[in-house]
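Our working data are protein records whose layout never changes between entries. An example says more than a description, so a record of this kind follows.
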Amino acid sequence: MHTSSDAGPGLVRAVPARGRLRVELAFAALVLVASWPLLAGRCHVDHDVLPYALPHLDALQRELAAGRLRTWEPALYCGYYAHGAGQAGSLYPPNLVLLGALPLLWAYKASILLHQWLLARGLGALAGALGASRRAQVLAAAAGLLSGSATDHVWHHNVVVALGWAPWCLLLAARVGRAEGPRAGPTAALLLAGAYGLALLQAHPQWHAYTALGALAVAAAVAPPGRRLRAAGLAAAGLAGAGLLAAALLLPMWGYQQVWPRPLVGGRWAFLAGNGARLEDLAVWLLGGPSAPPQDVLRPGAVVWALAWLHLRALGRAGLARTSSAGLARAGLALVALGLFFAPSELNPLYPLLVHVPPFSLFRVPSRILALAQLGLCLLAAGGLDRWARGRDVGLAREAALVLAGAAGAAALLRHLGGAPPGELGLALPALGVAVVALGA
């Protein structure tokens, strides 16, 4: 049995070996369920897979077979500086291993499965490090793996890679914030530098930049009040170290962007760059179903929202600092607040200014930062499940069911008035959530 305390520097609970095995099998099963088409002989072909990801991987595999690392690709896109584009992953170790060992499509499928497992396992580890039980860790992993950021971007290999590393970087940032002793904090920052630097080698700059913002927020949020500035500084040092480790890719990327800049939200080509989230998009978080842009979807949203609300409601009654789930709540709230502040256009009066402030101004589709809010919501829901399962605040379950029913009705009405009424699935998911919470009450 591996033991440590939620309140101490170890950041984990007592987990019997048999229980740990069941949890690991649950994480693997989640990935298999989410990715069954890949195992059934199918392969993604939509969006960037055929015109972008597979050509890059194929060219890299051919270069590896010839004993070279790929930088320039004359046969792709009329001549293409693949290494400087960043997303080719010419130096990313999992690419080199998988492409050297497997045929192209199997290497691609294995990469998707690997990074989806990293996402699920990392979210479970992050929730457990902040005090969640085993069942709550599985809930956080399931909600994150089925979220809009994961499912609607499974067609983008680089996004799947970035999402796979995100919870591990957040976990190491939490260790920076909760570390005690003169060496523990710098050690955690060095580990953060290593993990984030490795992730950067398969670079999707936008998603990695948002992960860095989330890491700074989590480190400061979970640190004791007197050490929050130090924790944020150590996390920033770790992220800067990651940039040095990945300089062989980041410097060519910087040069590439000087010659071939991308459309930005604050520039003259803003109409090509997407925009922030709208009020009707946020309603889809609860209802499920299609949205514009698609990364605003959170599935399954109803039960996750109810558990997150129950957690926050209970903390409001008991006081945040006096509960065992304080770390979960602080980290979850920090991520939700960060995502909701930077993403909404019409909901944030500062949005016209934010589109000109780096790093927010440097990327397309700024509402993608809602991925941080989704991760935070998963952590809050994990804390809510634990409080419910331990018999704490059971009386709030009936109240949660009523609030959930009202919120789902308001979201459906908002979608209807916006000209995009929810379909049967969009009504069935919240109805199922209300039923689950009501039965629990």
User: Anything to note?
Assistant: The CA atoms of residues 308 and 381 lie 4 Å apart. The first helix runs from residue 17 to 34. The chain has a mean pLDDT of 81. The longest strand covers residues 72-73.
